[in-house]
Amino acid sequence: HASLLISPRRLKLESIQFKLICAGPGEMVITEPRQYYAVINLTASLAISTNFVFLGEEALPATLAQCEKMDYTI
Questions:
Q1: What is the rounded distance in angstroms from the CA atom of residue 22 to the CA atom of residue 11?
Q2: Alpha carbons 47 and 51: distance in angstroms, whole number
Q3: Whether pLDDT at 1 is above 60
């Protein structure tokens, strides 16, 4: 998972819905809350990621599932 990429063919075989989005220079991709995503750069890239929360929304859910194999302590 931390270094896992699943092919579109496999996702289809498992009936998992997904979108492939190819964004070019100057274009923005917006993900939905709690949506898993992966980025593959097709060329050299300088990217900026900004995360924000709308007013009245919780930044994190009250309970948050995490992988037991990963150490998320700071």
A1: 18
A2: 13
A3: no
Helices then strands, counting H and E runs in the chain, come out as 1, 0
Q: Is 1 exposed, middle or buried (0-12, 13-18, 19+ CB in 10 A)?
A: exposed
Q: Of 64, 54, 14, 8, which is closest to residue 34 (Cα–Cα)?
A: 64
3-class secondary-structure state, position 15: coil
Instruction: For Cα atoms 35, 8, 63, give the angle at the middle one, nearest 5 degrees.
Output: 25
- pLDDT at position 74 over 70: no
11-38 residue pLDDT tens: 999 999 999 998 888 888 888 877 888 8
One-letter amino acid for residue 54 of the chain: F
